[in-house]
Automatic annotation (TrEMBL):
Name recorded for this polypeptide: Protein-PII uridylyltransferase
Keywords: Hydrolase, Magnesium, Multifunctional enzyme, Nucleotidyltransferase, Repeat, Transferase
Stored InterPro entries: ACT-like_dom_sf (IPR045865), ACT_dom (IPR002912), HD/PDEase_dom (IPR003607), HD_domain (IPR006674), NT_sf (IPR043519), PII_UdlTrfase/GS_AdlTrfase (IPR013546), Polymerase_NTP_transf_dom (IPR002934), UTase/UR (IPR010043)
One Pfam family it belongs to: GlnD_UR_UTase
Keyword match Repeat: yes
Domain named ACT: residues: 706-769
Organism, scientific name: Bdellovibrio bacteriovorus
Gene Ontology MF annotations: [protein-PII] uridylyltransferase activity; hydrolase activity
Stretches of the chain forming a coiled coil according to its record: none
Entry keyword annotation includes Nucleotidyltransferase: yes
Entry-linked Gene3D superfamilies: 3.30.70.260, Beta Polymerase, domain 2, cca-adding enzyme, domain 2
Highest taxon in the source lineage: Bacteria
Amino acid sequence: MAHKTFLTAEQFQQAQEILTPPLMTPDGDVRQVFCFSSESLSHWLGTKLEEILKENPQWRDTHPIMLGSWARGELSPKSDIDILFCGDEAQVKAFTDHLHERGLKLRYRMPLNMEDWTEGVEAFDILALLKAKPLTAEGARKLFEQQKNIWARKKHFRRILLKAVKDERKNREKRFDSITNYLEPNIKFGPGGLRDLEQGLQIYELFAEKFNNPGHALNVLQYYRSYFLSLRQKLHLDGHSDILSSAVQFDLGKWMGFKSHKDFMRSLQRGLSRVSFYSDWIVEVAEASEKDLRKIESGTFKKFEDFLAALHKSSRVLVQKKVRENLDSLIPDKLVKTMAKRRGKALDEVLDVKESDEFLVSVFRSRLIDKLVPEVRRLVGYVQHDQYHRFTADSHIMQACREVKRIYKKPSELGPLKFISKDLTKEDWKILTWSCLYHDLAKGLESAEHHSDLGVMIVERDFRSYGFSKAFTDEVKWMVQNHLELSQAAFRKNPKDPKVWQELREKGISEARLLRLALFTAIDIRATNPEAWNDWKAKLLKDLVLNLQSKRAQNYFDFESLKKRKKLNLSAEVVEELGLQLLESVSLTDLVDDLKKAETSEVSLKPRMLKTRKGELWIRFHDKKDRRGLLSDYVGQLYSLGLGIRHASIHTLPKVGVYDWFQVTSSRNLAALAKMIENASVQSKPVPAVKFDTIQIVSADDKEWVVSFKGADQPGLLASAAKALSDAGMSIRSARVHTWGRQVDDIFVVKPSGDAQELVKTLSERLGS
C-alpha cells in the first residue's frame, strides 16, 4: 500500500533525477535489466532510510533488521517501511517513538521469543526473515542463527509457506478479478504484479533443488522486476499510488518511450501475463513430486503434433512451460505458413466442443496458439479501454472458445435462451467454435475498416490455406461479418418492428444462421464480461428470435417477396396493417393478386366474396376514392343483410384506394349472398342503438388518433361505431375489428379534427353504457 513518502522535498527532487527513463523502450522481447534505473533508486532510497535511523545514537542498541521491499532492494518512495528489532524492548520503544515524532511511519515488530523468531507469527513473516538484511553486527549474528534454524527445518516450513502463498494468491486473484484492474492495473498487488513476482522468486529459492534449467523463467521474472519497479517508483514520484489510472497512462507511457498509451498498456499486460505464468509454474514445480518432474523433463518433442499430444495428455502448467520453451526451435516462424493444413487439423481438435476446457486453456497459456493462429500473438495484452470489456483481446477470444464448450455441455447456462441449443446440428457447433476463435482477430489493426470486415479477410485467407470447404468458410465469414448485429437489434431496437426484421433478413439472418448468431451473441457477451450477461438480456434475445420465427414475421417476408415479384407499389408494412386474422385465412398470393388489380384498375372493383378451407366467409369492398361515411355505408350494408361481423381489416392505401375486408357470419347460400351484396348499394335497415363498455383514445398526435371501442358482442356494434364516428365528422383511415369469445375490440385510426377528449365525450354520450 502506497503511503506518504519519507523523503524531504529536496530528496524527492533528487530521486526524480536518479530515476531515468529506460535506455530502450521495454517490449519484453529484449530482456536487458540494465536498461532500468530502478535498482539504483532503490539503493539510494535505502541509504536515505539508514541515514534517518542513524541520526539517533540509540539505533545500534535496537539492532534493526530490514524486512520487506527494503531488504529485497525494491524500495519505492512510498513503500511501507518494515523493520524487526532484536534489541532491548525499552530502547526499541524510545527509538521508534522518536522516529514517529520525526514523521517516519514504520511497520515494526519484535520477536515474541528471542530464541525462536518464528513463534506466533504468520507464514509470510517467516518468509520475510529469509530475505532480511541486518544493520548491525549483533543483529547479523542473531539473524543468521534464526535463518540457520529455519533452514534446518526447511521441509516443515516450506510446506507451510507454499500453502500460505497459494492461498494468498488465490484470494488476491479474486479481489483483483475485475474490469477496473484490467483497465487500471495495480502494479503491486494485481495478477502478475510485483507481489506475484517476488513470491515466485522466493518459492524458487526455497525449492531450488527441484528446478532444472530455470534460467529463462528467472530471466523473465528479473526483467519484469526491474520494469515494474520502475513503474511503481515513477508513479510514487508523480504523486500517485500503485494503480495505473487512466489519467497517468498517457504520461507514463511517453516517459517509458512508447508511441501511445495503448502500446504501453499492451506491453504492460503482456508482462503481467508472463509474470503470472512463470510464477504459477514455479509454484507448481514446488508442489510436484520428483517422479512427475523427471517424467515431464524426459519428454521430447519431435514434431508439431507432439505438442498437442502432450497438452492433451496433461494440461498442467509444467507441461505448458515445456511446450512454450520448445516452440520456436521446433516451429520457427518461417515454417508456420508451410504447415497450414496441419494447423487447421490441430485447431479442429482444440476447438471441438466435446474436448476439455483445460486442454483449450493449455493451448493458449503455452502460447502454442501463437503458432496455430499467428494473428493471436498481436492481440496479447491488447486492452480495449472501456468499462465493458473485462479481458484483454487474446483472453476474450480464449474465453469465447471456452464459453461455447460450456454451453454445449450445459445449455441451462443460457437461461431463457437455452431452447436454441437443441436445434443446432454438429455442423452448427463447428461453425460456432471457429467463429469464436476468429471473430475478433482483426482487433487493433490500424485501418479505417471495421474489425469485422478485416476479420472476414483473415478468415478467407486462413481457411483457404487450411483447405476448408467454401461452404464452411462462407458460413464462418458471415458470422464474423455480422457477429454484432443481433446484439444491437435485441438491446437497442424494437424486436417487433418489421423494419428491424427486414434489416436483419437483408443481412441473411434467418433459419440456422439466426440460431447460431443468437447463441454466439450470448457467448460473446459472457466472454466479454460475465457480469454483463443476465436473464433480462437472455429474454430480449429470446424475444427477438421468436419474433423473427413468428407467423407474423413470415407473413411479412412472404408479402415482401410477392410484392417484388408482382411489382406492387406498396410498402411491406401493409401486411402488418392487414392483420393476422386476415392473413391466416386468405392466402398471401390471393391478397397480392387482388391488391395488384385494385392498384392498376382505374375504377372501383366489385365486392369480392371468398370462402376459406376452414369455412370462414370474407367479403372485400374496394373504392378508388375515399369519402366521409364510406365505411359506415359498407358496415350498414352488411348489417342490413343480416350479416354478423367477426373481424374487419379496413384501410385506405396509396394508389389502391379504400380496401376493406370483413369476416362475416351468415346462414345464406353463398351464390345468393353474392347477388344480394352486388345489388345492395345502400343500407335499408336502421343501425340499432348499442352500448360499449369503454370508449377511449389509445394514442393521439398531430398525424392520427387511435380510438378504441370495447364491449360485449351484440348485433350492430361495428355499424354503430362507424356511423357515430362519421356523424361526428371524423375521417376513418383504417380500422381493426376483433371478436374474442363474447368480447369485441374495435380499433379505429382517424384523421385528427377538433379536440380528442371532446370526441370521446361525444361518442360516450351516444354509445357509452
